[in-house]
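Hi support team,

I've been running sequence recovery on a batch of backbones for a student project. Most finish fine, but this one hangs at about 90% for roughly twenty minutes before it completes. I'm not sure whether the input is malformed or the queue is just slow. I've pasted the structure tokens below so you can try to reproduce it. Let me know if you need the job ID as well.

Thanks,
M.K.
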């Protein structure tokens, strides 16, 4: 029987939730079209040193740790895995761009400017990379690929063994079918926490990660793992008989998309077959207690997929950190999109302080139509708050200034599969300097190839070496990463990626991006420095590309 406060909260939430079931959809996942149906292997442990159907990538704030989530999507093993790589060492192995010999290191290196009419034994026509002066090898021993090999792994050079000394720092096994991964730094200390929805057992995994400064090999990831490096049951949330929301709800099946507040205290997971999203709360002060299932929001549009957290204005953050009553009344939010329904659902998050009975919950606020298309299948959202953040930085904490900055709209970019496009919008304008109401106006689009799956905000370095913001969209089917310039309203580069690019993360500080290649199980590195001849190309592959079982290519 529900307590009186819980009943009151359910009634209030039902009244506030304006979202109704919209258009039905019938579309298979799409990722599995090239795979046969394989029987799961109940006994074979996954090789924790192998990149295998990667679906999630994350970077530490300093860019020195790269996290890879492997899904075991063809069920060859009995689990997936999470790995952490020394990204600083990986960067040291990347080709170094140059224009003249003077850009390289001493007498042992020269700049490869070989003209096409005088190609070396390596078959290049000038990479403009620093190469060994004697051999002229642009690939540093990795070998130059044949044209046929480049169909699987684009790029001049062969792959780098991900097990090379010092690269792979730690790995653990998790449930199969991880669909994504996000990282949030610990605001109370060093390190942070990874969150991963997994479909095989309908759970949310969480893993604590070190700062990398005091840890050693095999000590970077903490999930209660046993000697076999398998995460324990405490680090899977949602599958225990005692793991129910306060109203008694179980975690729905088919977890898919994930979003988290900037401070990592609220995690929202979509459930792609249920028309529901779940809320987990993560109390950092509880140390290794981990997140708790707090609420299930129902009656959303069918098949919710993508979840994006809405950046909170600085003045609202101050309001929520004050410890007293909320003066501004701003509630953090998330945007949720669905497959084959041209709408974006705005969901508000109420923590224990703002809840009428002390239990955190989600409430549907508004449903905004994507006016650019009669149908949609939005798989990813990139939110750009840089203009508002720049304004807030200049305020130096002055409240009236912060109040004014809060009215600056956010720019939002959606990766839409139906039709293939980047949908372009912004939060609606506000009057009288009020806080943004976070409702979306999507009124433009940029056609791109079919099959976009993720959208990420990041930056490149332009020809003058200055950072310029960009939107990066991975398109699974045509094997392309699209780079869109929001200021010029133009696509400035199309990166020829390997087959099945999914997750992507940008290292702004070092002008590179990492892209997970789902189909052939490796991670590519993209050069994002426009001063380089290799700009917009894959310059390294981490892990040996391995075609899936049953693939004839």
């Amino acid at each position: 029987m529900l307590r009186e406060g819980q009943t009151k909260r359910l009634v209030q939430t039902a009244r506030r939730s304006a979202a109704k079931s919209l258009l039905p959809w019938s579309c298979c996942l799409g990722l599995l079209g090239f795979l046969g149906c394989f029987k799961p292997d109940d006994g074979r442990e996954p090789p924790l040193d192998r990149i295998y159907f990667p679906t999630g990538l994350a970077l530490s704030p300093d860019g020195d740790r790269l996290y890879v989530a492997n899904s075991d999507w063809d069920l060859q093993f009995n689990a997936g895995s999470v790995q952490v790589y020394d990204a600083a060492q990986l960067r040291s192995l990347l080709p170094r761009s140059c224009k003249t010999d003077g850009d390289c290191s001493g007498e042992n290196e020269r700049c490869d400017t070989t003209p096409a009419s005088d190609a070396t034994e390596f078959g290049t026509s000038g990479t403009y990379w620093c190469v060994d002066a004697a051999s002229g090898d642009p690939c540093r021993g990795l070998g130059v690929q044949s044209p046929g090999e480049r169909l699987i792994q684009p790029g001049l050079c062969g792959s780098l063994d991900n097990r090379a000394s010092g690269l792979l720092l730690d790995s653990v096994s998790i449930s199969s079918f991880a669909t994504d991964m996000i990282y949030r730094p610990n605001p109370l200390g060093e390190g942070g926490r990874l969150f991963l929805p997994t479909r095989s057992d309908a759970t949310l995994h969480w893993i604590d990660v070190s700062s990398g400064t005091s840890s050693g090999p095999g000590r970077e990831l903490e999930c209660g793992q046993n000697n076999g490096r398998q995460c324990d049951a405490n680090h899977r949330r949602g599958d225990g008989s005692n793991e129910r929301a306060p109203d008694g709800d179980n975690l729905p099946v088919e977890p898919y998309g994930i979003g988290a507040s900037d401070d990592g205290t609220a995690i929202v997971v979509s459930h792609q077959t249920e028309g529901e999203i779940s809320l987990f709360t993560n109390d950092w002060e509880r140390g290794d207690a981990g997140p708790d299932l707090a609420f299930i929001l129902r009656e959303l549009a069918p098949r919710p997929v993508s979840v994006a957290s809405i950046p909170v204005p600085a003045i609202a953050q101050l309001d929520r950190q004050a410890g007293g009553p909320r003066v501004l009344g701003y509630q953090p939010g998330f945007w949720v999109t669905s497959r084959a329904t041209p709408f974006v659902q705005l969901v508000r998050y109420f923590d224990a302080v703002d809840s009428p009975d002390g239990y955190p919950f989600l409430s549907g606020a508004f449903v905004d139509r994507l006016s650019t298309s009669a149908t949609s299948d939005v798989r990813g959202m990139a939110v750009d708050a840089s203009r508002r953040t720049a304004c807030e930085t200049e305020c130096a904490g002055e409240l009236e200034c912060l109040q004014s900055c809060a009215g600056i709209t956010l720019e939002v970019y959606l990766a839409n599969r139906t039709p293939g496009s980047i949908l372009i919008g912004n939060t609606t304008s506000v009057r009288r300097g009020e806080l943004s109401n976070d409702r979306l106006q999507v009124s433009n689009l940029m056609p791109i190839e079919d099959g976009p799956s993720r959208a990420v905000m990041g930056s490149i370095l332009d020809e003058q070496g200055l950072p310029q913001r960009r939107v990066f969209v991975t398109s699974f089917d045509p094997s392309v990463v699209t780079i869109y310039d929001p200021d010029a309203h133009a696509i400035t580069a199309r990166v020829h990626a390997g087959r099945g690019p999914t997750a992507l993360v940008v290292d702004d500080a070092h002008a590179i991006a990492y892209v997970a290649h789902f189909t052939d199980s490796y991670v590519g590195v993209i050069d994002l420095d426009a001063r380089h001849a290799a700009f917009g190309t894959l310059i390294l592959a981490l892990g040996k590309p391995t075609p899936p079982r049953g693939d004839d290519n």
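--
Follow-up from support: It reproduced on our side and the slowdown came from queue contention, not your input. The chain is about 10% helix and 35% strand. No action needed from you.
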